[in-house]
Write a structure and sequence with these properties.
Elements: H1 13-17, H2 27-34, H3 42-54, H4 58-77, E1 84-88, H5 98-105, E2 110-115, H6 118-121, H7 124-127, E3 135-140, H8 146-153, E4 164-168, H9 180-189, E5 196-202, H10 208-221, H11 231-236, E6 242-243, E7 249-250, H12 259-263, E8 268-274
Parallel strand pairs: 1-2, 1-4, 2-3, 4-5
Antiparallel strand pairs: 5-8, 6-8, 7-8
Helix pairs in contact: 2-3, 3-10, 4-5
This protein binds S-adenosylmethionine (SAM).
Residues 27-28, 31, 65-66, 69, 89-91, 115-117, 120, 142-144, 168-170, 173 line the site of S-adenosylmethionine (SAM).
């Protein structure tokens, strides 16, 4: 069951859906293809396949990124006791969406999803399911519009209580000139002490040759330009926050559940940090 105001974006859905240009590859749908989803079109599949030829690890890698997402949410809703999540860059629903994992850990968890892609909006209803006592909401909004996000998310989240801000696999879509660090500062200024920031970010300094070719190919073939970053660049995005153990590591090395997690080749930097 979704909470009332959440259906607010949905009447616009028809209009937004007509904005989906299936002739142009889009990162959300390319990612969906790598994850084995069905919400992708021929141009997305062509880009995804071309990228796989440059770096055959990419398919396993995105699964490793998704597994990090699930472990981070499980940790935050479990050990860290967080009950509110702001998940920006939701993506097309896949296995272990944030609200499912969080509400498995504690059914009263409240989750606001944010994405700016009409195809993700078209799946909003699938994301707007919730355990009784919890809530989920969806905002059709751009990460660069933090004040609007905070204002609208305030319909579901109580910003006087801790919130976990999830930026999983999205910051590489934000170029340096759009100031990702400034965006994160605005977000973390809006949440109280005891809140958390979780980031996973494609790396340009892990398995560098393959990843470099992958990034170049994606940027050649897609209008949206991606910026992979180094460990030092991602570490700087946590400025002023306290990284929880094991710190900023390759995604599969973040609190792995098994050796199988550790074997995953994901070339992403991942970490979770607390605002004190
Ligand atoms: C690679 S997917 C990651 C999905 C999910 N977080 C995960 O890690 O499995 C990136 C998502 O971020 C969204 N996105 C990219 N730039 C965005 C922006 N400026 N504002 C909001 N969403 C954005 C895309 O539409 C896409 O759905």
């Amino acid at each position: 069951m979704s909470s009332g105001w959440l259906s607010a974006p949905l009447p616009e859905q028809g209009a937004k859906l007509s904005e989906i240009d299936t002739s142009v590859p889009h990162i959300a749908r390319v990612y969906d293809y790598w994850l084995g989803g069905k919400d992708n079109f021929a141009p997305d599949r062509a880009v995804a396949e071309a990228a796989m030829r440059e770096d055959p690890n990419v398919v396993e890698g995105v699964r490793g990124n998704r597994a990090f997402l699930a472990r981070a949410v499980w940790y935050l809703a479990g050990q860290a006791g967080v009950r509110q999540f702001l998940d920006i860059g939701t993506g097309i629903p896949a296995a272990n969406n944030t609200h499912e994992v969080a509400q498995d850990a504690a059914r009263e968890c409240r989750v606001v999803y944010v994405d700016n892609d009409p195809i993700v909006l078209s799946h909003a209803r699938a994301l707007l399911t919730s355990e009784p006592g919890g809530a989920t909401a969806y905002l059709d909004e751009d990460l660069r519009n933090v004040p609007q996000i905070i204002r609208a998310a305030g319909g579901t989240l109580d910003f006087t209580k801790p919130v976990a801000v999830m930026l999983i696999g999205i910051l590489h879509c934000i170029p340096d000139e759009d100031d990702p660090a400034g965006i994160i500062k605005q977000l973390m200024d809006a949440v109280p002490p005891g809140s958390y920031l979780a980031i996973s970010h494609p790396a340009n300094d892990i398995n560098s040759p393959g990843v470099g070719r992958l990034a170049s190919r994606l940027n050649e073939l897609m209008p949206m330009k991606l910026r992979f970053r180094s460990r030092a660049e991602v570490a700087a995005l946590f400025d002023g926050l306290e990284l929880v153990e094991p710190g900023l590591v390759r995604g599969p090395e973040w609190r792995p559940d098994s050796d199988r997690d550790l074997e995953n080749p994901a070339a992403v930097w991942a970490g979770v940090a607390r605002k004190n």
